Structures are given as C-alpha cells and as structure tokens.
C-alpha cells in the first residue's frame, strides 16, 4: 500500500480555546484522498494533554485498511522539521481501532487520564482518555543514558 501525506495549509484558530496553529494534510493512497491528518503546531497545554499533537480521520469506506497507521509512520520527518522530538496522541479507551492504529504506528501507551468535567462539556471529549507517545528524535539525555547503558 502506498500512502503519502499531501500538505494542504497551515490554519490558525484563536476562536475560543486559546491560539491554535495546525498543519493540515490529506492522506493519499494511489492518487485518491482517503482521509485527513492534522499536526497541531502550537496549542495550549490543555489541548496537547487532552487532544494530543496529532488528529486524523480516515473516510468510512477506507477504514480498516491500515491507511491511518501508514500515514502516522510518514509523519516523523515532517514533525522534526517543525521542531517536535516526540508526538502525543489521545483516544478514548473504547476506541479500539485508534488504539490499534497508534500501536501499529509505533506509539506507546503511557497513561490514562481523567478529563475535568468542564473540559469534557466544553470540548466534547470523554471522561477518560488514553495518552500515547511516539518518540521521533531522542533527546540528548536519552541518547547519553543509552550510550552509558551500552558501555557498562
């Protein structure tokens, strides 16, 4: 399966939850658009905590074919250019498809968080969210600890 991310635009939104800047991409396979992906370039800490750095959607007729995981695997070099060293993702515990997608893309489940009531209502998200992280460029500290561990 050939999947690529096609850049569309950078969108800025300061309409209500603080300033948010996003890079918008189409997920393309064999010349056809099968979904969308958003990389949140700048957002409030609550947005990153409860929504993650990345959002994606695959059109219904293309779901279950691995397009989202393939698109997420294309994202690290793009995110590095924007200064990311890691990417955070969130999903609801009952969203098995997203959980599998994130794991196939190499993200690790790190924690389960409780979302404050006012955030649930205001941003229409569930009471509990799973947080996943994908490290795309080890920090100097991580690289040094790895070097030290292998030299012992």
From TrEMBL:
<keyword id="KW-0808">Transferase</keyword>
<protein>
    <submittedName>
        <fullName>GNAT family N-acetyltransferase</fullName>
    </submittedName>
</protein>
<dbReference type="InterPro" id="IPR000182">
    <property type="entry name" value="GNAT_dom"/>
</dbReference>
<dbReference type="GO" id="GO:0016747">
    <property type="term" value="F:acyltransferase activity, transferring groups other than amino-acyl groups"/>
</dbReference>
<dbReference type="InterPro" id="IPR016181">
    <property type="entry name" value="Acyl_CoA_acyltransferase"/>
</dbReference>
<dbReference type="Pfam" id="PF13302">
    <property type="entry name" value="Acetyltransf_3"/>
</dbReference>
<feature type="domain" description="N-acetyltransferase">
    <location>
        <begin position="1"/>
        <end position="137"/>
    </location>
</feature>
């Amino acid at each position: 399966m050939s999947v690529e991310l096609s850049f569309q635009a950078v969108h800025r939104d300061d309409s209500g939850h603080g300033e948010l800047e996003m890079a918008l991409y189409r997920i393309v396979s064999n010349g056809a658009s099968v979904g969308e992906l958003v990389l949140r370039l700048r957002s409030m800490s609550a947005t990153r905590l409860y929504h993650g750095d990345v959002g994606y959607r695959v059109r219904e007729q293309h779901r279950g074919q691995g397009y989202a995981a393939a698109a997420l695997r294309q994202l690290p070099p793009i995110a590095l250019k924007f200064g990311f060293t890691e990417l955070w993702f969130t999903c609801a515990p009952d969203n098995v498809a997203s959980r599998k997608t994130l794991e196939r893309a190499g993200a690790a489940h790190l924690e389960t968080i409780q979302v404050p009531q006012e955030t649930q209502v205001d941003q229409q998200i569930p009471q509990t969210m799973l947080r996943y992280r994908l490290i795309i460029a080890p920090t100097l500290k991580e690289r040094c600890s790895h070097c030290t561990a292998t030299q012992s």
